[in-house]
Structure formats: C-alpha cells, structure tokens
Write a structure and sequence with these properties.
31% of the residues lie in helices and 28% in strands. With 104 residues, the protein is of the alpha+beta class.
C-alpha cells in the first residue's frame, strides 16, 4: 500500500531553507538534497516503518530516517494511510528538533 506524504508547515520551512543553502553551497551537486529527500519520501510512502523510533521526545510514534548522502534526518509520524513529515534536521546540530509545538 502506498501512503500519502504530508509535510507540516515547519518541515516545509526546513526543506526550503536547506534546499536554498544546498544550492548555494554545494555547487558540485546542487540537486542532491531534493533528490535524496524525494527518494526518502518514496520509501516512506511504501514502507513507513523503515525509520527508527525517535525516543528523545515524549510524543509517541515519532520516527526518523537518515538521508545518508546529505546527513539529514527526516522526522515523521504515521497515522492510518498518511505519513506526516514533521521536520528535517541535520545530524550534526547536536540535538533533534523541538517537536513540542506540533502537538500542543
């Protein structure tokens, strides 16, 4: 079964910011981030439990999946036939994104 992928406004902001930065600073592969993210979304649509449970939050059901080439995590949750992408966050930021505002 293929699930629908929905990005939150926060995730959309992350994606636009990362894409803009990537295109300006990674001129040898300006499309790498958006291509890897699109492939990730395709994987999650087909098998949303590929990612690992994200336990650094009190919200149950949050998972993350690594975009290996660009070293970002996509944070998401699955509800019925929909995968909600909550955030896209670089692995070297030290901590994950603050997801509390998404559940208040």
């Amino acid at each position: 079964m293929t699930r629908q992928i929905v990005t939150t406004p926060e995730a959309e902001t992350h994606i636009r910011t990362i894409d803009r930065w990537w295109r300006l600073n990674r001129q040898a592969a300006p499309d790498l981030f958006v291509e890897e993210l699109a492939a990730c979304f395709d994987l999650l649509a087909a098998n949303p439990h590929l990612g690992h449970a994200y336990r650094a939050t009190r919200q149950p059901g949050i998972r993350r999946i690594l975009l290996r080439a660009t070293r970002y995590h996509a944070y998401y949750r699955v509800e019925n036939d929909t995968v909600f992408v909550l955030a896209v966050w670089h692995t070297q930021r030290g901590t994950g994104p603050d997801l509390r505002s998404l559940f208040s």
